[in-house]
Amino acid sequence: MNIVNDAPTTRTYDFVVEERRGAPDGVEKRMLVVNGQFPGPTIEANTGDRIVVNVTNKISNATAIHWHGLFQRNTNFYDGTAAITQCGIPPGESMVYNFTFDGWMGSTWWHAHAGTQYTDGITGALIVHAKNESVPIYDGDLAIQMADLYHDFSPDLLTLYHTPGGLEGTPGNEPVPDGGTINGIGQYGSSNGTFFNVTLSPNKTYRLRLINTGSFVAMRFAIDGHVLTVIEADGTAVAPFDVAAVSVAVAQRYSVLLRTNGTVGAYWLRAALDQDAFTYDNPGVQTEVRGVLRYGVDDSSLPDVALLDNPPSLPDGAPGELDTDSLIPVGGGPAPDATFSVYFTISMQYAGGPNYLSQFLSFINSTSWEPLQGTSSLFAHLGNETADGSATYSNSQLVTTIDEPHVVEFIIDNLDDGDHPFHLHGHKFWIVGTGAGRYQQQALDNKAPMLRDTLVIPAYTYTILRFVADNPGFWAFHCHIQWHMAAGLLFQMNVLPSESAKFDVPQYMLDQCARAVNQ
Question: Within a 10 A sphere around the Cβ of 90, how many other Cβ atoms?
Fold first, then answer.
């Protein structure tokens, strides 16, 4: 369905969140899903549209739905971040999210943003079309949602993650997935012989929107025998370039063009889990998920099974894997000079005091985030009469207040031995510097830096980001690995508090705080 030429309209959705039994890869498990499906409904709209989503919560904990990457200008209270922009939708109650895109366009997703709920299935694609998007012309459009998959329920896995001494005896060991899915379908051993499959037309160009909706590891996407052309990352059009495969970190998105100009037939799609992040052996883990893509043949055709574990090589001279240094925004140029600087470190360690040798937590500087109970950062701040309109928060809340518009520079030293995919709510950032070790005034690369909302900060490296902070509200900047965020790897910006103090937040959202039970 091509809607790009439709007149601006209001698109309304009803989401019912509930617990179900499901078997995405053939192994039955507890799941949390929207409208009984995994992934949940795809929201597809144009950049001039309004989106209205009525969410009814039928699970036993409060929930919230976040619209990943969207700016939510003047609707920070609809950002859907439990304990920060709302208290959560209590069990048995409903809430209406109502927002516009404010010029945002491209490929993104929505997901639960309360505890580790999205790990259990509360996710879906969000596609925003625009006539003026600076990408090549294509004939068709297809969202590819890839995710790692756990057979156990995420609260149980989180308890294991916090086990004194750590999983398998090492503090900080993240639960290793059992496998993965492509658009909700995976294969685990002999449990499931079905594949996500799609039949396209030959000699056409298709836009594949690759979305990692997983909880822990990057997913490497490739199609046997085909070169892909990268054209978008996190809602930013980029100068097109060819690749053989694309590694998509948790919460990132890439659009690639696929040309169906090869030999007609069926081909394997592959989404491989990045095993570099695995810290112990999980027997039976399915490290590559497969799907079927075909063109010029009937819908029952399957690729050669002999190629399942022996993918054919591309011809000599073919491009290599995606190198993020090759991402150049269309029409990009230097980021503006910084007018406000924030330095912080990322680390993971035991908390001091009574929890020592109990919980291995994540820290930004010396703070490990814990969700507020019975309120949210935004709600606690509403109507404050302090000079800058900001509230005072407990030691578990690391909040930087930016009380006038600034170009903010984040200087980040990752002191941890793991990679962290960080996401900034409500904004995109320019990546003006990265390198090994700590930041010690190394030269920046500000010729045409990439502009996006989610990036990987590798182990023992520094990263310098810049963004324009002129969007009122409380905005999270956090690691998108669910285990790390649940362990406290989150920082908040309180932008233009004198403006957000005037927000007209629906009264029922405030009233829900007394009944919201956060995971």
Answer: 19
Give the pLDDT confidence score for residue 389 in this predicted structure: 43
pTM over 0.85: yes
Contact 477, 410 (CB under 8 A): yes
For range 243-263, the mean pLDDT: 98
Could you tell me which of 259, 143, 161 has the C-alpha nearest to residue 211?
A: 143
Output the CA angle 254-255-256, nearest 5 degrees. 115
- Comparing C-alpha atoms, which of 182, 177, 145, 142 is closest to residue 289? 182
Task: For 83-142, write each residue's pLDDT tens digit.
Answer: 999 999 999 999 999 999 999 999 999 999 999 999 999 999 999 999 999 999 999 999
Measuring CA to CA, which residue among 174, 154, 114 is closest to residue 31?
A: 154
Q: Which residues pair with 32 in a beta bridge?
A: 19
Number of alpha carbons in the 13 Å side-chain half-sphere of residue 263: 6
How many angstroms separate the CA atoms of 67 and 73, rounded?
A: 13
Residue-wise DSSP of 71-133: --TT-GGGS--BTTTB--B-TT-EEEEEEE-TT--EEEEEEE-STTGGGGT-EEEEEEE-TT-
CA dihedral 398, 402, 408, 411 (to 10 degrees): -20
Structure tokens at 442: 């190394």
Say what the pLDDT of residue 26 is: 95
What tokens were used for 15? 């989401």
CB 146 within 8 A of CB 107: no
Cα angle at 379 between 377 and 383, to 5 degrees?
115
In the numeric block, the tokens 């518009």 are attached to 405
DSSP-based three-state secondary structure for 302: coil
Is the pLDDT score of 487 beyond 80?
Answer: yes
Q: Give 222's strand partners.
A: 270
**DSSP H/E element including 478:** strand 473-479
Tokens of 494: 């309180």
pLDDT tens-digit map of 358-386: 678 899 998 889 998 999 999 988 865 44
Length of the chain in residues, anyone?
519
| CA angle at 48 for the pair 46 and 49, rounded to the nearest 5° | 70
Tens of pLDDT, residue by residue over 28-47, are 999 999 999 999 999 999 99
Please measure the distance between the N-terminal and C-terminal CA atoms of the chain and give it in whole angstroms: 38
Rounded-to-integer distance, Cα 307 and Cα 269, Å: 11
3-state secondary structure of 511: helix
Kindly state the tokens that stand for 295: 């063109």
What contacts 21, CB < 8 A, 6 or more positions away? Answer: 28, 29, 30, 31
Other CB atoms within a 10 A radius of the CB of residue 294 amount to 21
CA 276 to chain centre: 20
Q: Output phi, psi for 345, to 5 deg.
A: -110, 150
Q: Residue 507 in 3-state DSSP? A: helix
